[in-house]
Design brief:
The complex is a heterodimer of chains A (about 750) and B (about 300). Chain A is mainly β and about 750 residues long. Chain A contains 6 helices and 49 strands. Chain A has a 22-stranded antiparallel β-barrel. In chain A, strand 5 and strand 6 form a beta hairpin. The radius of gyration of chain A is 27 Å and the shape is globular. Chain B is mainly beta. Chain B is about 15% helix and about 45% strand. Chain B contains 3 helices and 19 strands. In chain B, strands 2, 3, 4, 5, 6, 7, 8, 11, 14, 15, 17, 18 and 19 form a 13-stranded mixed β-sheet that branches. Chain B has a 3-stranded antiparallel β-sheet with strand order 9-10-16, with no helix packed on it. A two-stranded antiparallel ribbon of chain B has the order 12-13. In chain B, a hairpin with a 2-residue loop joins strand 9 and strand 10. The chains are: A mainly beta (about 750), B mainly beta (about 300).
């Protein structure tokens, strides 16, 4: 195997590149917890070349054999460290960085990350978990997906939900990975916040365009989240109580400096408080559990086993003919093996299992829907990174996934007598499919100014004897203009084989996952993006402007008037079309100092066109919002007090309003005397959405029994501080007396105060 | 203990406030809409044609009464061969709606197996359409009442019509019950509100909203199960017939049925009325229909 890989790598690169360099490689870790640091920068002061640690904290830098080379290791929130090496052979160097707060804005520039300017990657944003912890919390729960919604190019879904839309793509076009396992619905509490417990997370990266070849299977974005490994030196506990739930995280070494564990759980206690008043008619319970074990077998081999399970179970019965019962959850397990081959070659092989299910029964206005949608995947993949010379970093690998999907739904009038039809996993015809991919990419530094990242991915999809094979070329390019600015461009082609078919009118989740087959062709997209990136004040302030244009084919929607029955062939109720999205994204971000935060603004337009919808004319996508502005700030008032706020304002969501009304004569009473002339789909917009959230936290170190130190934190905050009634949905009715139509707006979340208390020891 | 109780109650109130949806009536900017005519006309052998011609107005327009919507200045003609019937504006008082119904009435009886051409000239423009009265009426085998019937709408009562399809042509059907109603009658479980009905009862066609086609079942016995739209008492009698309608009417009423369903059911996408016989310049239909022989039916409960 080793020989095969080396042969592959060596045959790909001219021999002279190999002969002229040696590799310095290893892990960059936090000196206190001995946990790896993802995205730490390694800068060679001799030739200004640089690299960064991968998602396992590993780096490999190729240098010319010399008497002496100075490398600067840096990571946000940590003190940089300069290391001097003198080597003529490959060298393993693990580096430990100490955490340190940077209150002073004057500091060495190398201490600050300038990846946004220097890396060829476009459309990628690193989300430091520390930043998430410093921002306002809904119901006291800090949430990484809420932060994602505040980034440029990302549109928030329904009010209060954790769903997001990226560059004109639907919700399902985002691949959300937790330790490489796909999570299809990472939400709690109807999506009010995500099922990611920030105490258990190490880092996250959102990629909106210029996708590296190792990613595929979705058209619009990759959100790659990595769990923490746990402290390898000492045991720690973190606990918190909020208004709705409590959480507990325990971590520590199994074998000091060699292996560790982290277990983090969260459980709601809403029911305990609701049941005395609601006679069990309303209930909500959720929990999530993250666990990870890691073990360093030796200097070259590292094993990880991570596990996630989240579940929600809710029911609500109201007198106004609105009720629902919903159960959903994700479970995933990942077994990873990291292996260092030497000569700068790193591999990761993973076996992944994930399971998602959602069962919904809901009633609105005397109609009900029962729905079951589920996906079970078994995935095996292997990925290699090889640093060749000081110009090339190769990435190649393969993956195989076996999908099992369970789609089923019924929508009907509530029977006056008898029971409603129920939909369960057993009553659904399962869909089986196989997805495989090979990929190859190269990060090539052509010169100090020019970097290129060409790549190719070859996905293969097999379902019901129908095969699809594609070539997905990828290319990103960067041209540096001086030290602090660069221009980048990218082209990517993507394909997607599982689809969430949205119901644009329902206000509750009523979407179904379906697999591609002979009838449902894979969705595909082409995206080009160009951007200008500029850092100011020694990288204290990052600024960027990106323009993108994306086309999407084989988009899926339900036909007009589709009423699903349990025995309905769902495929026959679908209609296919295309989408187009373009826009400009602006971001200005301040990373260091007492005041941190960012401003993001997106101007975009997303349309869809289906032959069978809207008379075949293009129409705004249901998630199209022209303007989207977010302001996020966090300020350290004192050593103990931090205040933070976020403000968002964006254009209203489109919906379909009838344009004309027609009096009905023949059987008029059956149509409430009128029927309607629709002239275009999504022809009206809800009111502009705007909201301010504020939060303050107070942290102090305490001691109990004069012996044990711990850190305690109070967080108080207001969600929707000025209690704006933002539109959730709009419905139409006709006044029976005046026969006049009336539009009614429903708002969901008014001002919501929150308070939580956390301790860490 | 008291403190604990208040804390608990406060917390519950907080959670409820957080989840309470807030509703308010809003003014929305209506989409731009160019008015156009609505034309609705069935012609039936051995009957005088009635044509309803109204303005289609913007959705939020204040005009809701029939006398505000009727197009009065139209020249409406129905012709076949060398015979032309010029329809004249007429009205009839509708006690249920408590207002006049306005329509254009012909003077010549419609014949079977003829091709009729409708032409309309009015301030909106000129319109024409063709209908052929070659539809063969179905034959009803039996009418049965059932207290329990299960379909997409769950379990409900129903009037079941068994009838024979005509094998020689493509056919489209809907249910028709001629019955009486009064102010004690409920529609969709709501009482009928009419200032004009008083203690009178009126005859009314209770027409099935769903339309059916005989695809794959030509010449076989067909079954329509109609869920009563109006409430009934034991012993109430009516005349059940099956309307055979042409393809244009089927397409139009099928869209209306699905549009109504979509308007009621929040899980169904809105249904557009696609351009029909009049293109996109007018909305509606000009179609032939014929009713089967009516069967007397009495509700057993």
């Amino acid at each position: 195997m080793k020989r095969l890989i080396r042969w592959f790598v060596l045959s790909a690169i001219p021999i002279q590149c190999m002969a002229q360099s040696v590799h310095i490689s290893g892990y960059v870790k936090d000196s206190y917890a001995r946990e790896v640091l993802i995205g730490a920068t390694i800068f060679n002061l001799a030739d200004s070349s640089s690299t960064e640690t991968n998602e396992y904290g590993y780096y490999s830098l190729s240098i010319k054999p010399s008497d002496s080379v100075r490398l600067l290791f840096s990571y946000i929130g940590h003190q940089p460290e300069m290391r001097k090496f003198a080597t003529s052979v490959d060298l393993r160097a693990d580096v430990f960085l100490s955490a340190g707060r940077q209150l002073q804005e004057v500091s060495v520039s190398a201490n600050r990350n300038d990846d946004n300017v220097n890396k060829a990657q476009t459309g990628a944003i690193d989300i430091p978990i520390n930043a998430v912890k410093g921002l306002p919390a809904l119901f006291g729960e800090r949430d990484i997906l809420k932060i994602v919604q505040l980034l440029p190019g990302v549109q928030q879904g329904q009010e209060g939900t954790a769903g997001f839309y990226v560059r004109g793509g639907n919700l399902d076009q985002n691949l959300i990975l937790l330790d490489e396992a796909t999570l299809y619905n990472p939400n709690h509490l109807f999506g009010l916040f995500s099922s990611f417990n920030v105490n258990a997370l190490n880092g996250a990266k959102l990629i909106k365009g210029g996708f590296p070849a190792q990613y595929g299977g979705r058209l619009s974005s990759i959100l790659d989240i990595t769990m923490r490994e746990g402290n390898k030196k000492s045991y720690h506990t973190e606990a918190g109580v909020g208004l709705l739930s409590a959480n507990l995280t325990v971590e520590g070494p199994i074998q000091k400096n060699k292996s560790s564990f982290i277990v983090s759980g969260r459980h709601s206690y809403i029911n305990l408080l609701l049941h005395p008043l609601t006679s069990n008619t309303t209930s909500y319970a959720f929990y999530d559990l993250n666990a990870k074990l890691n073990y360093e077998l030796d200097a070259r081999n590292h094993l990880f086993l991570s596990f996630f399970k989240g579940s929600d179970n809710a029911s609500y019965v109201a007198s106004n003919s609105l009720d629902y019962g919903i159960k959903f959850g994700n479970a995933s397990g990942t077994l990873c093996w990291n292996h260092i081959y030497g000569h700068g070659i790193f591999s990761n092989t993973s076996l992944i299992y994930n399971d998602y299910h959602l069962q919904l029964g809901t009633t609105q206005s005397n109609y009900y829907e029962a729905l079951y949608t589920g996906i079970r995947d078994i995935n095996l993949k292997t990925a290699f990174t090889a640093v060749i010379g000081n110009k090339n970093t190769l990435r190649f690998g393969a993956s195989y996934t076996y999908h099992t999907l369970y789609p089923g739904a019924i929508s009907a009038k509530v029977p006056k007598k008898g029971n409603r039809v129920n939909v369960s996993q057993d009553s659904i015809n399962q869909q089986y499919s196989k997805e495989a991919a090979l990929y190859f990419g190269d990060d090539y530094k052509a010169s100090t100014r020019i970097s290129l990242s060409p790549g190719i991915r070859v996905p293969l999809f097999i379902a019901n004897k129908k095969n699809y094979v594609f070539l997905e070329p990828r290319l990103t390019a960067k041209y540096s203009i001086g030290e602090h600015s660069s221009v980048k461009a990218s082209y990517t082609q993507m394909n997607q084989f599982v689809h969430l078919v949205p119901n644009s009118t329902a206000s509750l989740p009523a979407d179904i996952w379906l697999s591609s087959n002979a009838y449902i062709k894979p969705e595909s997209s082409h995206q080009i993006a160009v951007g200008f990136f500029r850092n100011f004040l020694d990288n204290c302030i990052e600024a960027s402007v990106e323009l993108y244009y994306k086309t999407m084919d084989n988009q899926v929607l339900f036909k007009e008037g589709t009423q699903l029955l349990l025995n309905t062939n769902i495929d026959s109720q679908l209609t296919f079309g295309k989408g187009e999205s373009y826009g400009a994204e602006l971001m200005v971000k301040k990373n260091v100092g007492r005041l941190t935060g960012w401003i993001s603004y997106t101007l975009s337009k997303t349309t869809q066109q289906f032959a069978a919808l809207n008379y075949g004319n293009p129409f705004p996508a249901s998630f199209d919002r022209r303007h989207n502005l977010a302001l996020v700030a966090s300020y350290e008032l004192t050593k103990h007090w931090t205040v933070s706020a976020d403000f968002v304002i964006y254009s209203g969501k489109p919906y379909t309003l009838p344009a004309g009304k027609v009096i009905a004569y023949s059987g008029g009473s059956l149509y409430d005397h009128y029927y309607y002339d629709y002239t275009s789909r999504n022809n009206s917009r809800m009111a502009v959405y705007n909201r301010l959230d504020i939060s303050a936290s107070n942290k102090k170190n305490r001691r109990i029994f004069h012996k044990y130190n711990f850190e305690r934190e109070w967080i108080i905050g207001l969600y929707n501080a000025y209690s704006r009634n933002n539109p959730y949905f709009v419905y139409l009715s006709v006044n029976p007396a005046t026969k006049q139509p009336q539009a009614t707006q429903v708002s969901l979340l008014p001002i919501i105060p929150n308070i939580s208390y956390n301790i860490k020891f | 203990m008291i403190v604990k109780k208040y804390v608990s109650l406060g917390f519950i109130a907080y959670v409820f406030v957080a989840f309470l949806s807030c509703k308010k009536d809003i003014k929305v900017t209506p989409p731009l809409y160019n008015e156009k005519p609505s034309i609705q006309c069935f012609i039936e052998p051995d009957s005088i044609p009635h044509l309803y011609l109204n303005r289609v107005v913007p959705y939020f327009d204040a005009s809701v009464k029939k006398d505000q919507l009727i197009i009065r200045d139209a020249l409406v003609m129905i012709s076949t061969g060398s015979t032309t019937d010029t329809l004249t504006l007429d009205s009839a008082f509708n006690k249920l709606d408590c207002q006049y119904d306005y329509f254009y009435r012909g003077s010549k009886t419609i014949s079977i197996n003829r091709v009729y051409t409708l032409s309309i000239k009015c301030s909106f423009g000129s319109y024409s359409a063709v209908a052929t009265t070659d539809i063969t009426p179905p034959h009803i085998d039996s009418i049965v009442y059932t207290a329990k019937f299960n379909d997409v709408n769950g379990e409900h009562e129903g009037v079941i019509a068994y009838f024979q399809d005509n094998p020689s042509q493509e056919n489209y059907y809907r249910y028709d019950l001629l019955r009486t109603i009064d102010t004690s009658t409920l529609i969709a479980e709501n009482p009928i509100v009419s200032a004009c009905l008083g203690s009178d009862s009126i005859l009314l066609h209770e027409i099935g909203r769903a339309v059916y086609k005989d695809a794959g079942l030509q010449g076989k016995q067909l079954i329509i199960v109609a869920e009563p739209a109006f409430s009934h008492k034991k012993g109430l009698s009516g005349l059940v017939s099956i309307q055979a309608i042409d393809r244009n009417a089927y397409i139009f009423f099928d869209q209306l049925d699905r549009q109504k369903l979509a308007a009621n059911n929040p899980f169904v996408e809105p249904v557009f009325i696609l351009p029909g016989q009049f293109g996109d310049k007018a909305i509606g239909f000009f179609s032939a229909k014929i009713n089967s022989m009516a069967i007397l039916f009495t509700y057993p409960e």
